[in-house]
Amino acid sequence: MTAEPLVVCEDVARTFGTGPAAVTAVRDSRCSVHSGARIAIAGPSGSGKSTLLHLMAGMEQPTRGSVSWPALGARTRDIGVVFQSPSLVPTLDVGENAGLPLVIAGVEEPELAQRVAEALALVGVDDLAAKLPEEISGGQAQRVAVARVLAQRPRLLLADEPTGQLDRAAGQRLLDALLDATEHLGAALVVTSHDRAVIERLDTHWTMHEGTLRTTESRAVTS
């Protein structure tokens, strides 16, 4: 028996604005993501990749079509999103930044400390817990942003151009951390990118072209 998918997009479209100035970012696209998936969505800037991820996360509402989360129900809090910019709070140290969503959600000690420590260790920055954002590198800051999401223990992790502001080596290290962490958590991973070195590390390759999603299955080269 096939498990229910984590997210299903049925003929979704998303248009911004009205009249002659309207821009359609996603056009009549359909897809589903199951547990354990490792998916790369390729395409140039402006092709609709980010908007599709926002629809999957429930951050945007489709203009047409529907998005549902069969295996999650209404629990879109089980979806974590990593953005291109880490957006750390400059006055909080690394550990406090990683734990901030848990504080907001009302998670109490000692569970909060345990989950933060685990998340920081998963991405290899546990030795930076007491550092301020200004004291770490851009690659380290992006790992902290990933840890902030992992501490919430998502079942679906959506990463929007997570290596876009990093050099090749730092980007590959971040992708290593994403793959290892989602494997540890048993979470599905969807990554948008136009970097072939990132795309080829994931098992399934989709593409966006002028707002239309094309889904294909292909095995990635992981060496």
TrEMBL record:
Cited PROSITE patterns: ABC_TRANSPORTER_1, ABC_TRANSPORTER_2
Domain of life: Bacteria
InterPro entries for the chain: AAA+_ATPase, ABC_transporter-like_ATP-bd, ABC_transporter-like_CS, ABC_transpr_LolD-like, P-loop_NTPase
GO function terms (MF aspect): ATP binding; ATP hydrolysis activity; transmembrane transporter activity
Residue stretches making up the ABC transporter domain: 7-223
GO CC annotation: plasma membrane
SMART domains: AAA (SM00382)
Name under which the protein is recorded: Putative ABC transport system ATP-binding protein
